[in-house]
Structures are given as structure tokens and as C-alpha cells.
Specification:
Length: 590
């Protein structure tokens, strides 16, 4: 349903779609529902509520001036489509946009004159009313930027076109299939149906305006076509390709005074030439701005998954192939939320609040991955999968992944101190592995997603699982740990070999390492503690468990990383089993 406002002057009007639910307030304080030309409109004048096809209007107590309906003052009314009420000198009418014809029938009268206007024909002509036209055009970027959705944009464009084309009685945005939006200068003159023949002719000649004149001597007795409303002329301007392909601006009006013998000759002296040129300028600017707007919207969607550097690549000259899957060296980070299951059980009756907390946790993970040039591959419940090395391979991908992991750990540690924070009580386990994988847009022809696939992904997941058993927040595989030792400064990140383990479900054992923040970070071991632990690990691997046990007891009691070796040594009374290989079997995933 639409509400149409018509003031005492032809230019004082608007038509706006009413919300299907909720209540709006008509008044001077409203940004949208205001009639600035009406001096008798209060700041909060009337409350409007739409119920299917009925509009309930109630005067608010702060309004000094009454509502008028059927010539009588009233406090409240209920309108059907076509009904109206008055405030001051402004008439407000309820209209149903689904009732008018979308196009005129095919039986239109013969044309008096027609002309197709090539785009370049208007290049050499200057506007006769340039200041006013340019002032209206200057508002177009704001019109597009401030529109909440397409119907709002279409309504604002019609308002702007009526302001810029002063001799127009009706303007519309149309397609071959129907009318997107229309408006007329005098709201009380009824509905409007554009010429199907004119629209078809214009859209078949892209980038060319088509002008039709029905001319003098016609009694205008048949109101089944564009001449409904007694229009003498109309032109239709296609808006071009891209984001506005298939759209056109439709403008119709009447002759002022005596009808000329021909409207189109000579073209150089025709005042309608300015209107056509204005419509084409609006179309050109609208098309360009809509392309920019859609590009930004697409970039905003992609920015949830890719870092700025990746986005630059995706918007480059080879963008169509930028997402093609390919085999490459990657570093994969798998981050899982701890404490989630208990939180769900404790909040069985308020799961939405839990979802909001999990969303905040995933936001921390995503922010750190993207901030350090990674890509988001997937969300698996309360876990996030990120990776580095595609579509841009850079030598610091391992360090970037470790910076992201340390950033996630630090953020959760900080929030964990605040009982009022949504992330209080949550911790994370993170696994990082490096190796060969296939990355890119993986899926079917109908549906695909950007992800990473290969054994290295499974390994990162297993490392994340093992953080529970080894009681440390971040675990690395051997290639990742070696890269950090060789290329990353200790004031960024440090590593210590933790154990030689055989992960659950895997055949080959591996050395796992713990990723640690720099010295001075809260709860971070000193370099001396790291050296003492790795000396204890070497003794443990060599079977000298007494020496290993003594070295482990020199470490701070709050160092949880030493617990697995200590417990394994005590389980067999400090004596290695027969055939000791240095491998600790991981009996389960968690």
C-alpha cells in the first residue's frame, strides 16, 4: 500500500510505500513521513497503522490541528484504498499499487510523430536551465546512497525526476515487464499506465531515447493507453547495461497552450530536447553509481571471508579465474571453542543468548585471521577454519597464521577476566599445520564455496583436538615450528617441542610443538624454562626418565605443558617400556 501526499502546489507531493507491520508517525520530526511544505503539520501529528488493506489513522494528543475526513474534523479514521484525509492544506491518500494496469493494451492510436534520439546528438547542446538541472543532478549520489532498498530508491528517483523535468506530468521507472515505480505531479489525477509500444521501442534500441507525440486534433476519448491522463507526448530513455540493464526512464506530459504544427522539427529549438538530455544524464549517473554500489556490496560480503590483499586480487583483471582451485603450499589454522557444550546445557531455555555468545567468539577468530591476511574456509559449529597461501602465496604465511593464533589466545585470556563479558568462561584450542593442499572455489557447478582440502587440514584439526590432552592452547606440526624458529623473531612468537606423539587415527608419529607468546606475556614461560623443558624431552625420548623427571620438576608448577610427560613417566614407575620408541600414543581424539 502507498500513502500519497499532495500539497497546495503541484511540486509539493510524495508517494511512499507503507510498512506492512508496525506503526509510523506522521509529523515534522519524522525523517521520512514528513510534509515540509505543510505549516499546520505538528511535530508528531498522526499515528498510522496498516492492517492488510486498511489504514488506521489516529490524531496524537500533541497535534493542535485536527484531521479532516469527508469535510469533517475527526480524531481517528479507517481508510480503504482510494480514501483520504486532510491536514491543513495537504491531502493524504491511501493507494493500492497492485490495482492499476502495468502497461496499456496494444490497441493504441496512430502516432502523430515519433523520433529516436541518438545519444551523441545531445552532446553539443547546453541546458537552457543549467543551474536548476545541475542542482538536481548533484543530489543523485545522496539519493542512491541513502535509499534503504530498491523501492525506496525508485520512489526517490521519481521525486528527483519530477523536480528536474518541470514540464513532466508523470515520471516512471519501467522495464519491459512492468512498472517499478511511478509518480505524478498532481496526486489527485488518478492512476497511470505507460505505453507498451513506446517502452518496447526504446528497450530494443539500447542507448537511444524514443520520443512519441500523439499530437493535436485527438479528442483523447480512449483512455486505455498512455493518453490516459490526457498526455500529448512521452519519451522513454533506456538506462544501459550492467546494474541497470533492462530499466528505462519514462516521462509523459501535455502541451502548454497552442499545439505546434510539429513538436520535433526543428529539433534544435525543441524544449523537450533539454528534458531528454536530463533523463539521459540521470540514467548515465545512476548506472555508474549503481555499479559502484553493487561492487561495494559484493566487497562487503567477501570481506567477511578474505583479507584486503585477497580482495584486491579478486577485483583485478583476472578476477574470473582468481577463485579457481589449485594445488599450493598452505598453512592451516583450526580453532575450536572450549566450554561451549556446558554452556548450552546450562542455558537450555535461552539458546539464542548462547548463539550470540558463540557468534562473538567466532567474530574474534575471524577478525584475527583476516587481520593477518588469511582466508576463512569454513565455520563448523563453534569452530573456525582459516588458511594462508591462497590465492596469494607469501613467504610470511606461517608467521601470519601464528600471529593470528596468538591474537585469538590473548583476546580470550583478556575477556576471561571479566565475569560480565559474553566470552567469559570460554577458552580455545588451536591447531596449525603447513603442507600441500588444494585451495579455491570447491564444489559443484551449481554451488561452491571457498575452502581448502587435503591431509594438512585433517592434521590441523587433530592438533586442535590434542590441545585438550596435552593441556596447551596452541599446537604446531614440525614444518610450522621449524619455520617459526628460522624466520620469526622471538619478540613475535616462540616455540618449544612438546612431545613425540601418535595422533588418534594416524599411522605415523610426529613431533608436536607449542606456540608461545613473547617473554613478558602473562603466563608465558621464560626462555630458560623452555630450554629446561626441551632438555627434559630429549632425556624422555632417549629413555633416561629419571633425568627427565628431575628436569620437569624444575619448571614452574603452573606450566601445564609438562603434565603429560610427568604423568606418563609416573604411570610406568619412571621406567620406559620394553622397546621404547619415544612415542606417546593418543588413545582418543579428546
Amino acid at each position: 500500500m502507498l500513502l500519497i501526499a499532495q500539497g497546495p502546489n503541484p511540486a509539493d507531493n510524495w508517494r511512499k510505500p507503507l510498512p506492512a507491520t508496525g506503526t509510523i508517525v506522521l509529523g515534522r520530526d519524522a525523517d521520512v513521513w514528513n510534509a515540509p511544505w505543510e505549516p499546520f503539520l505538528a511535530r508528531r501529528h498522526a499515528e498510522l497503522t496498516l492492517k492488510i488493506d486498511r489504514l488506521k489513522v489516529r490524531r496524537l494528543g500533541a497535534a493542535a490541528n485536527p484531521l479532516f475526513h469527508a469535510g469533517k474534523p475527526c480524531e481517528s479514521i479507517e481508510l480503504q484504498p482510494g480514501g483520504s484525509f486532510v491536514i491543513g492544506r495537504t491531502v493524504f491518500t491511501l493507494a493500492d499499487p497492485s490495482t492499476p494496469q502495468r502497461h496499456s493494451p496494444g490497441s493504441e492510436p496512430p502516432l502523430f510523430e515519433t523520433r529516436t534520439v541518438m545519444h551523441h546528438e545531445l552532446d553539443g547542446f547546453a541546458f537552457r536551465d543549467a543551474p536548476h538541472r545541475l542542482d538536481v543532478l548533484s543530489k543523485l549520489p545522496d539519493v542512491i546512497a541513502s535509499a534503504t532498498d530498491d523501492p525506496d530508491l525508485f520512489a526517490r528517483l521519481c521525486d528527483m525526476l519530477l523536480a528536474g523535468i518541470r514540464r513532466a506530468d508523470v515520471v516512471a521507472l519501467v522495464t519491459r515487464d512492468g512498472v517499478l515505480q511511478w509518480d505524478r505531479r498532481l496526486a489527485g489525477e488518478g492512476e497511470f499506465a505507460p505505453s507498451r509500444r513506446l517502452i518496447a521501442a526504446a528497450l530494443e534500441n539500447q542507448n537511444q531515447t524514443v520520443l512519441h507525440v500523439w499530437g493535436a486534433g485527438n479528442e483523447k476519448s480512449d483512455d486505455r493507453f498512455t493518453m490516459h491522463g490526457h498526455f500529448d507526448w512521452a519519451f522513454c530513455t533506456p538506462l544501459g547495461d550492467g546494474a541497470v540493464r533492462g530499466w528505462a526512464i519514462y516521462v509523459a506530459g501535455r502541451f502548454a497552450g497552442a499545439v505546434p504544427a510539429t513538436l520535433l522539427a526543428p529539433w534544435e529549438s525543441n524544449e523537450l530536447r533539454d528534458d531528454v538530455k536530463f533523463a539521459e544524464l540521470v540514467g548515465d549517473i545512476l548506472g555508474a553509481l549503481r555499479e559502484v554500489q553493487q561492487s561495494r556490496e559484493r566487497q562487503a560480503v567477501f570481506s567477511r571471508f578474505f583479507s584486503p590483499g585477497v580482495l584486491n586480487l579478486l577485483s583485478g583483471t583476472d578476477a574470473p579465474h582468481a577463485l579457481d582451485p589449485r594445488e599450493t603450499d598452505v598453512t592451516v589454522l583450526f580453532c575450536d571453542l572450549r566450554g561451549f557444550s556446558k554452556t548450552v546445557e546450562a542455558a537450555e531455555g535461552n539458546l539464542l543468548a548462547v548463539l550470540n555468545r558463540v557468534s562473538a567468539a567466532l567474530g574474534v577468530m575471524t577478525d584475527n585471521i583476516l587481520r593477518h591476511r588469511g582466508a576463512i574456509a569454513d565455520f563448523l559449529g563453534d569452530a573456525a577454519l582459516g588458511f594462508w597461501g591462497w590465492p596469494i602465496d607469501h613467504p610470511s604465511k606461517v608467521e601470519d597464521a601464528c600471529r593470528a593464533a596468538l591474537g585469538i589466545r590473548a583476546t580470550f585470556a583478556e575477556y576471561g577476566k571479566d565475569p560480565a563479558h559474553p566470552l567469559h568462561g570460554f577458552r580455545v584450542g588451536i591447531g596449525i599445520a603447513s603442507g600441500r593442499a588444494v585451495a579455491g572455489g570447491i564444489g559443484t557447478a551449481e554451488q561452491a564455496k571457498v575452502t581448502v582440502f587435503g591431509p594438512v587440514v585433517n592434521l590441523a584439526s587433530r592438533l586442535q583436538d590434542m590441545t585438550k590432552l596435552l593441556r596447551v592452547p596452541i599446537l604446531l606440526d614440525e614444518p610450522t615450528a621449524a619455520d617459526i624458529r628460522e624466520h620469526t623473531a622471538p619478540d613475535v612468537a616462540r616455540v618449544r617441542r612438546l612431545a613425540r606423539v601418535k595422533p588418534y587415527g594416524l599411522d605415523k608419529p610426529l613431533i608436536v610443538a607449542e606456540l608461545l607468546p613473547p617473554v613478558g606475556t602473562e603466563d608465558a614461560p621464560s626462555d630458560e624454562d623452555i630450554a629446561a623443558y626441551e632438555q627434559a624431552l630429549d632425556a624422555f625420548l632417549a629413555g633416561d626418565w629419571n633425568a627427565s623427571y628431575k628436569l620437569l620438576h624444575q619448571l614452574p608448577p603452573d606450566d601445564r605443558g609438562k603434565d603429560v610427560l610427568t604423568e606418563f613417566i609416573l604411570k610406568t614407575n619412571r621406567t620406559p617400556p620394553t622397546g621404547w620408541s619415544g612415542v606417546i600414543p593418543m588413545g582418543s581424539k579428546s
